[in-house]
Amino acid sequence: MRQRLKGRVGKTKLKNALNKLFQENAKKKTIIPSTNSKTKKTHNNHIQRPKKLPYHDYDTILLLGEGNFSFAFSLARQLKSAEGITATCLDSESILFEKYEDAAENVEGIIEMGGKVLYEIDCTLLSSVKSFKKEKFTKIIFNFPHAG
Ligand SMILES: C[S@@+](CC[C@H](N)C(=O)[O-])C[C@H]1O[C@@H](n2cnc3c(N)ncnc32)[C@H](O)[C@@H]1O
């Protein structure tokens, strides 16, 4: 009996020590145990935190095959600047604006935020784009491509 009691006391101490350690670690990693405006709860009550973007304001990003430029504009807004963004599409300017009624607004937004927009850029012929000869990109992205 005494032995059992000893064992229990030991376990409780260990449990308390581990709890303390977990709490300290959680503080260091700034894990927020409650929800806030940026967190959501999933159906099974797990806290879903906003995912970190794989892009940073110090990146120089080349976007290929944009459709209506909504991704580029959204990325610019997330990064709070489009200075590192060069967004391109295969279409000519006039075809783009004919195809997508929101393209003009997105393009305008990107340019206003300091980004570049280029038309008629074929991703299979990038070495022939003069302005790219002087530029270096840390990330090159083609979302949802198709071979036409
Ligand atoms: C399915 S859409 C995706 C559009 C956009 N990236 C998105 O995620 O909404 C595919 C795009 O690829 C473009 N595309 C097809 N061949 C291309 C090429 N050789 N170079 C650049 N873009 C191309 C098309 O113009 C079209 O806008």
Summed up:
With 148 residues, this protein is α/β, with parallel strands linked by helices. It has helices spanning 2-28, 70-79, 93-99, 103-112; strands at 40-41, 47-48, 61-64, 85-88, 116-118, 139-142.
Task: Let me know the average pLDDT.
Answer: 84
- Biggest sheet record: 4 strands, parallel
Q: How would you classify the quaternary structure?
A: single chain
Q: Quote the distance from N terminus to C terminus.
A: 78 Å
Overall geometric form? elongated
Number of strands: 6
How many separate helices? 4
Helix content: 25-40%
Overall tally of structural domains: 2
Bound molecules: S-adenosylmethionine
Percent in strands = 5-15%
Rg (CA only): 25 Å
- Identify the strand order in the major beta sheet: 5-4-3-6
Structural class: alpha/beta
Order of helices and strands: HEEEHEHHEE
Low-confidence residue ranges: 30-35
Plain-language structure description:
The chain is α/β, with parallel strands linked by helices and 148 residues long. It has 2 domains: 38 residues, no CATH class; 82 residues. 36% of the residues lie in helices and 13% in strands. It has a 4-stranded parallel β-sheet with strand order 5-4-3-6. Helix 2 links the parallel strand 3 and strand 4. The longest helix has 27 residues. About 4% of the residues have low confidence. The structure holds S-adenosylmethionine.
